[in-house]
Design a protein that fits this description.
With about 190 residues, this protein is of the alpha+beta class. The protein has 3 helices and 10 strands. It folds into 2 domains: about 120 residues, Mannose-Binding Protein A, Chain A; about 45 residues, no CATH class. Helix content is about 15%, strand content about 25%. A hairpin with an 8-residue loop joins strand 3 and strand 4. It holds the Pfam family Lectin_C.
């Protein structure tokens, strides 16, 4: 699309916070959707030409299967069609899609609570200003917080129960609205 612009976020965020950052940039902005090999190559080229991406290995894009496991869609509502999955992907127990845009451009699914850099898309005609990079993220203290943010399938999510450090926790979103957790250890 000729009126589509990209913004590469080099500050690492969980998938939901990356989408919130994009939406705060302007009303029609989202994590990017990619409908063709041409669009995938364009997004990859923008990433490669962005300074300060050397610490970024994966980039959140707008693909997910949060609504129904195995039924991928784009956060902006565009139809899912093209995909550039890496070998062995997607893993159906991980809901959010990231791209290795800096290297081979292939996609994989990851837990939405992982922290990655991200790619926003926005369209010409809207504001070009972006929110400050110090935008505070929403704290997730337990699985219920993830449930309230839209997670509906079981999996490993990042939580910060005491404000002193994040942990990976298994959240069973199918029972009790995400009330059960088993800690897996600190996040590096």
């Amino acid at each position: 699309m000729s009126d589509k612009c990209y913004y590469v976020g080099v500050q690492k965020k969980i998938w939901f916070d990356a989408e919130a950052f994009c939406k705060n940039a302007q009303p029609n902005a989202h994590l990017t959707s990619i409908a063709s090999a041409f669009e995938n190559a364009n997004a990859n080229a923008v990433v490669v030409s962005t300074s300060s991406v050397s610490d970024c290995h994966q980039f959140w894009i707008g693909g997910n299967d949060i609504d129904q496991t195995g039924q991928f869609g784009w956060i902006d509502g565009r139809a899912w069609g093209y995909a550039n999955w890496a070998a062995g992907q997607p893993h159906l127990n991980q809901q959010c899609v990231s791209s290795a845009a800096r290297t081979n451009g292939q996609w994989k699914t990851e837990p939405c609570g992982n922290q990655n850099c991200f790619i926003c898309e926005m369209y010409m005609g809207g504001s070009t200003s972006l929110p400050p990079t110090t935008t505070p993220s929403t704290t997730t203290t337990d699985c219920k917080d993830w449930f309230n943010r839209g997670a509906r399938t079981y999996g490993i999510y990042s939580i910060n129960p005491n404000g002193r450090g994040s942990f990976n926790a298994f959240c069973d979103m199918t029972t009790d609205g995400g009330g059960w957790t088993v800690f897996q250890g600190p996040i590096s």
